[in-house]
Amino acid sequence: MSREADIATLMAAADWLGGAFAAPPDAEWVEANAAPAGRDARAQIGERLRAQETARAIDRALTREAPAALAVTLQRRYTALFEGIFPPSAVLPYESAWQPGTDGTVLGGTPVAEMEATLRALDRHVSGAYREPADHLSVELAALAMALGESQTALARAMTRRLQGWVPAFCAALSRQDADGFYAAAGDLVLALIGESAAALEGEEAIATERIEGESA
């Protein structure tokens, strides 16, 4: 796979996952992602991320019910998990909730300010219609996708490291609260994405360093 195709697949993975965690899905989204074209796209992502079984788990989760019924099921799960309405089972998708010394419920502060600065560097901002802070998982994944797509390697590397700092704890909690569910599987795919993104971007950094050293020799 060429570098361009490799980066494009990582970008597609970040974009798809950002959308999956952005809001409760509707029946149209479920139907499109359960269709052959949606499964094929996920299979390509799963292969690149060395997470083929995770991609298949997502496929199974998206075909357990008819699209309209499954959309209602996933909407309820999204609300219960991510909107904090039922605190004992909530797994808040914000970086600030997973800082050292917090209990998963403290929001705001430095992560939001830092992500707002990152979005400015990308010449982007969170739409007022979205109503989520800049440290929401969907926003951070979108920022990673944009940095990859715009060949902003240093920024993509920084976003990958940012996600590595809190997503593992978030996904561990998500696996406990949504065992065998769509969102736990999607969380596993996020973990695979940031691992493969880190490896790819660190490889580019090593190549760039060798090139600079060769030119200065």
From TrEMBL:
One Pfam family in the UniProt entry: Nitrate_red_del
InterPro entries per the UniProt record, alphabetical: DMSO/NO3_reduct_chaperone (IPR020945), TorD-like_sf (IPR036411), TorD/DmsD_chaperones (IPR050289)
UniProt keyword annotation of Chaperone present: yes
Coiled-coil blocks: none
Keywords attached to this entry: Chaperone
Record flagged with keyword Chaperone: yes
PANTHER family: CHAPERONE PROTEIN YCDY, DIMETHYL SULFOXIDE REDUCTASE CHAPERONE-RELATED
Organism annotation: Halomonas cibimaris
Superkingdom to which the source organism belongs: Bacteria
The protein's name: Molecular chaperone TorD family protein
Organismal lineage: Bacteria, Pseudomonadati, Pseudomonadota, Gammaproteobacteria, Oceanospirillales
